[in-house]
Amino acid sequence: MVAHLSRSFLLSLCVCVCSQARISQEKEHFLINAFGLLYREVTAGSLVKVDMQGNIVDRGNTTLGVNKAGFILHAAVHAARPDIKCIIHTHVKSTVIVSQASLSPVSFTRIYTVPHVTFYCLQVGSMKQGLMPCSQTAILVGDVSYHNYQGLFVDEEEKETLARDLGPVNKVMFLRNHGVITCGVTVEEAWGLMERVIAACETQVRDVMKFKS
Which CATH class is domain 2-212? Predict the structure, then answer.
């Protein structure tokens, strides 16, 4: 699934995906992709089993560990929301723009070009208002939460603010100036929410760019 999602959006934007799933509520274990593998290399057997304290229970078929920032983000959500079984986190360009906290106009700089693919870096975003109900898809996403991103998730204390900002019922949270997470009772729910969020963000960005031009 992780490899499919990264391939699906790689041609039009820069994507980072971190996906994981809770195994057992009783043991508080969940699976997360190993740190050091390309997304196309991730398999079910390479997923790493960890507990809520970050201890590795089973490395799978690799000797790799996990990304601490990814662990803190997912552990915070799982600890606060036992209803959530799967979390998907992306840095898709359109979701990053919508998550921006700046008030300056949106602009992009083309940094390099390869055949059929042009990569852009986001200079400044102006989506302080977040996700707007400007499309049917955005409305179907439902209520969303926002977290003021403070850099890499390396501080254990940030777990509390992550949990508080997500709230007791929402399943989508934008990380300001960073990206978005979607959560689900099943992998399918989290995946479907992510597809809708990305589609809604792409529509919103196009509409805003048309208005500004």
Answer: alpha beta
